[in-house]
Design brief:
Blueprint lengths: L2 H6 L3 H8 L4 H15 L3 H12 L3 H12 L8 H15 L4 H7 L1 H4 L7 H14 L4 H17 L1
Helix pairs in contact: 3-4, 3-5, 4-5, 5-6, 6-7, 7-9, 9-10
Length: 150
């Protein structure tokens, strides 16, 4: 069985065996691709199975990506994705890519991350890497709007 079939059928141990030797980039690409392909919550449950066996920041990040992209049309998907994004940061607080990803939750219509939190995240990101374009843009935009609101 291929990876997608294993995920679809709930054969998560076999599915994980098929991916465990991949780089993080290829792992992410494959899981997210299958989530779009299957158009159901199987890929998310696969990631929950992975997290249950080997919880780490990267696995929470992938669960969040699956929810906020392939499954974003489902009620509550962004909220659950936000949980996993925050958990990734909790487990790897120095990984700025997870903080950058969390900024997505400020940009969506539901605005699950407040402007104040997004501004703070932007400052944390820029402290580590002052050239991060998204953080720079958001800092400038939010700086003026936060000043105007006070």
């Amino acid at each position: 069985m291929d990876f997608a079939e294993n995920v679809q059928n709930g054969n998560f141990i076999n599915a994980f065996e098929q991916l465990k030797s991949l780089s993080e980039e290829k792992f992410e690409k494959r899981v997210v691709s299958v989530a779009f392909e299957l158009e159901n919550i199987s890929a998310y449950f696969f990631m929950l199975s992975v997290i249950e066996k080997s919880e780490n920041a990267f696995h929470h990040y992938i669960a969040s990506v699956v929810l906020s992209t392939a499954l974003s049309h489902l009620t509550g998907a962004y909220h659950a994705g936000l949980y996993h994004a925050r958990k990734a940061i909790e487990l790897a607080p120095d990984e700025i890519s997870y903080k950058e990803y969390l900024l997505l939750f400020h940009d969506i219509p539901e605005r699950l991350v407040s402007s104040q939190e997004a501004f703070k995240l932007s400052l944390e990101i820029l402290k580590v890497n002052p050239t991060r374009q998204r953080a720079l843009e958001l800092k400038m935009k939010l700086q003026s709007s936060l000043i105007d609101s006070n």
